[in-house]
Amino acid sequence: MNLLMLGVLWIVWCTMHSLLIARPVTGNLQRLLGGRFKYYRLFYNLTAILTLMPLLRLTWQLRGGMVFAWQGYWQILRFLLLATAGWLFWAGARRYDMGYFLGIRQIRSGTAHILLSETEEFSTTGVFGLTRHPWYLGSILLLWSILPEYSIADLMVSTLLSIYIVIGTFLEERKLLAEYGDAYRRYQHQVPMFLPWIKLKNK
Length: 203
Fold this sequence. Notes:
By secondary structure, the protein is mostly helical. It has helices at about 5-20, 25-35, 40-60, 75-95, 100, 105-110, 135-145, 150-180, 180-190, and strands spanning about 65-70, 150.
């Protein structure tokens, strides 16, 4: 297998990951499955993990010579990025309902939510007062700092996944605007999408 095929497989994984959570798909599945839809979030998470593992293994097998390494004082920046990513995940987890995110609470309560909270409301406090998408930002920082050295395969996958996260963020912004309207639009004006000092708003 070459790098081109690896890139295609990652694009297929990203596409599948998005389609399975898209509202037209989940809406049709909810009507089709009825009460059994409460298992869907858990199924979605397990499917993502089980299909991700062989891709990670293939990427590791195709790693050749390193083309970039965090060396010298640049390692300080790497650890800062890792620490920031860890804090973003931790701070976001404090606001999200992790039981709903994992799909466990839906099964216990018998509800069919696939969102991150039982109330279906978006948070504007804590880390969400600094960035609208802490987990997405944390994921991008993690992609570019988790390895001490990066091969061509690593750089390609990190680039593809970063682009996927950014595109996915804009698509999610559209869904949030459609659901919450002016309330979320005001939030967009107050809090940046990613970086606290850059207020990038999806129009």
